[in-house]
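Lab notebook, bench 4. The sequencing result for the construct came back, and we need a structural model before the next group meeting so we can plan mutations. Quick request posted to the team channel:

Model the 3D structure of this chain.
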Amino acid sequence: MPEYKAPLREIKFVMDELLDMPSHYANIPAYADVATPDMVDAILAEGARFCEQELAPLNRVGDIEGCQRHEDGTVTTPTGFKEAYAKFVEGGWPSLAHDEEFGGQGLPESLGIVISELVGSSNWSWGMYPGLSHGAMNTIEQHGTDAQKATYLTRLVSGEWTGTMCLTEPHCGSDLGILKAKAEPNPDGSYAITGTKIFISAGDHDMADNIIHIVLARLPGAPAGTKGISLFIVPKVLPNEDGTLGDKNAVECGSLEHKMGIHGNSTCVMNFDGAQGWLIGPENKGLNCMFTFMNTARIGTALQGSSAMEASYQGALAYAKERLAMRSLTGAKAPEKAADPIIVHPDVRRMLLTQKALNEASRALVYFASQQNDIVKKAETEAERKSAEELLSFLTPIAKAFLTEAGCEATNLGMQVYGGHGYITEWGMEQLVRDTRIATIYEGTTGIQALDLLGRKVLMTQGASLRTFTKIVHKFCKAESGNKALSKLIKPLMEVNKEWGDLTMKVGMGAMKNRDEVGAAAVDYLMYSGYIVLGYFWARMAKVAQDKLAAGTSEEAFYKAKLTTANFYFRRILPRTRMHAATMTAGAASLMDMAEEDFSFL
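Done. Here's the predicted structure in token form:
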């Protein structure tokens, strides 16, 4: 199993030098006094220690053992998971980025996302248990009553209880408009929830005393489709009036899904048999409320792609430096050894640099998105909040879909670096491939996210949301247009940034004649967009590195590596936009002309 080491220097580069988080926190009154540089450094150091020493050793344990469902419907987690969660709660980690009003520490979401990265890279399946709780907390905080917040939110924030989201049913995945779960009113104002939900991550476990399910269901007489869905709080154990635990509710895990990866997390079929629940938010507005949870989960899923890249890169780099095979094409680099380390070979470097380039830019994107989230939640003016919300809305589908697709690519490359050993379980590289593959599927597949980006975010706003980002890129490129040292980055970035708008208009014009053009172009459009977004962050990182080297630094090697990686990205990865530009404008006919019966002649 690769030995995980928290990349604190890389993290601090993005936080302090690229995004200037210290000034960002200082400019938001809610964070100015709590997110001080000393406090942030202390939290990162302790978070790194916890993930390296407590979570990373359990990663393979979880993969081998998996979870166990017992005859009474209860589920136990792999060896050490429950004890690690107790230490996590004792350390105050669940409450880190939540309001003090509900028992939180009042620190920024952007700091919480950094800790989530460390957790995800060290043990993703374990991290999903507290990770799902964040979405439940945000949903109850935004849409719950004062009584619901007092009963549920405070205990979720403390980590005493955990949460889930229950959407999918056996007959419906992304199309929630056809869900069948029912909610019948009870005389006491509660509801009896009946139905089956599947693929429920952390649906049952032994790590917390109670699990709070956030459930979509239909009220009697509700309109058909998504307009007739309501949202409910359904606890595993019913709380008494004083908050203590009472009777078990009529909800339990019917079975555990048999999965390709993330074996350490309990992915459950959950059966609700007249379980007592309480409405959260307005009737028939459940999907609107649930989007609070889903948007939180989508950024968290984007982080899975980024976290997996880091873990895989660390393992691949260490192996490439030690593994001996063949001689360099330009002469022996380690003549005293039987062969050269494989890191001298161009193709191994191609794989490592692709991992490194995607990984470091993905971290910048996730942190930048979380920075916007800070502004949305706590900025003083409505104008600031609205501007950040528009930008975050545009970036969310790109972050979720592109970074998870990139995570799959990077982990496959990490496995490939090991050659045949990468296919062997003991090395741990194939586990990263298996664990990461789900990320492109859940919280909306790549295709669903692509339709959201191109259809809802771009075309339905007549390009306005796209321009919120292209203007940022244009402003940066214009400011650096005279920077000769970075001209090989700035010029191509300016070109694709302009082309982005031109291609959008071309696809939009086609869609006016045939709406299938949107679906045909969407995934290529999203991938094209993702490469430009990461290119922007690499250009910015290169600018920071250039300035540091010009000013004189004791970390020359670190900053030179940034410039070298940026050059690699622009020479070897950004050109992928050429292929996506061609395929997104190829038209829907090449996909839709074939008759259904002609797909197979069996």
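Residues 481 and 487 are 7 Å apart (CA to CA).
Will bring this to the meeting.
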